[in-house]
Amino acid sequence: MSVAEPATEKGRATRARIIQAAAELVTERGVAEMSLDEVGARAHASRSQLYHYFEDRDDLIRAVVYATTSAVLAAQDGLLDDLDSWAGIDRWFASLETIQRERKARGGCPIGSLVGQLAERDQLARAGLAEGFGLWEARLREGLERMRTSGKLAANTDPSGLATATMALLQGGLLLAQVRRDPDQLTIALDAARTLLRAASP
Fold first, then answer.
1. Is the pLDDT of residue 183 over 50?
2. Helix intervals (H) in 8-122
3. What pLDDT is attached to residue 2?
4. For residue 126, what are the CA distances in angstroms to 3, 64, 111, 136?
5. Which of 79, 98, 123, 178 pairs with 72 at a CA distance of 20 to 30 A?
6. CA 60 to chain CA centroid, nearest Å
7. pLDDT in tens, 24-79
8. CATH topology of domain 9-55
9. Residues ≥6 apart with Cβ < 8 Å to 37
């Protein structure tokens, strides 16, 4: 069971600092190479503090999963609120493409990058990753539901299925862009998603 959230502001700040340090190390070296000693050194936290805020190394990794999910969603917050119009969807897609071009297609999806490292070795982490994707997908599904209600999508449209298919194309595009170091791979995937969504117009 995870350690309870700290009651004091100082405790919450220390915990957040530890999670941030662990997240940075995971990004730089991967989950397998992240050590608690390195986390403590980077976060300026003692071993006793680490175990005060986290039950064990796996508990800390799970906290990184949730922090990563929160960061991914927060970075898109204004865009995800407007996925109930074609213009809003186009802005979202354009933002995702711009990020990949600025990064030169490095890094991929922060949530997706953890899947291969954690999904088969830690069921709680896998559940956290699934929840993260679910929260992301839900924002699109809710926007598509509003589009159906307003008549921008056909009455027999399945917003849930469209949202899942769009997320699958998005994640596949991010993966191909990363391994090929080619942001155009994401553009191709999102163009396919756009065609799929537009096909549901009345």
1. yes
2. 9-29, 36-43, 47-53, 57-75, 77-80, 86-102, 112-118
3. 55
4. 19, 12, 11, 15
5. 123
6. 17
7. 998 888 888 899 999 999 999 999 999 999 999 999 999 999 999 999 999 998 89
8. Arc Repressor Mutant, subunit A (1.10.10)
9. 47
As a whole number, mean pLDDT of residues 155-160 equals 98
Cα separation, 19 vs 55, in Å, equals: 13
Rounded distance between C-alpha atoms, residue 67 and residue 28, angstroms: 16
Task: Identify which of 145, 142, 131, 134 has the alpha carbon closest to the alpha carbon of residue 167.
Answer: 134
Could you tell me the CATH superfamily of domain 69-198?
Tetracycline Repressor, domain 2 (1.10.357.10)
Angle between helices 57-75 and 36-43 (to 10 degrees): 50
